[in-house]
Amino acid sequence: MSVLDNFDTWKDFLANRMQQAEQQGMSQQTISNLAYEVGDYLAKRVDAKNDEEAVLLELWNAASTEERQAIASSMVKLVQNEGNAK
């Protein structure tokens, strides 16, 4: 099963990678920039595997560069907030 098959699994995967990046001293801005690059890669090369990813893909494709950066930053915050709640 791919990490992209289930949205909760995808968020857990992102949260783990973000925690690793923070432990290595990456800034919040660097993490957000990497999230943007990952989002752009996924939008161009990977088919949505579930409803949540399909919505994100539609939003990404409709968004400007600034809006895409906001989407990426929001995903970072989403997984950070969920990680803090656990």
Automatic annotation (TrEMBL):
InterPro entries: DUF3243, Uncharacterised_YmfJ, YmfJ/YflH_sf. This is DUF3243 domain-containing protein. It holds the Pfam family DUF3243. It comes from the Bacteria. Gene3D superfamilies: Protein of unknown function DUF3243.
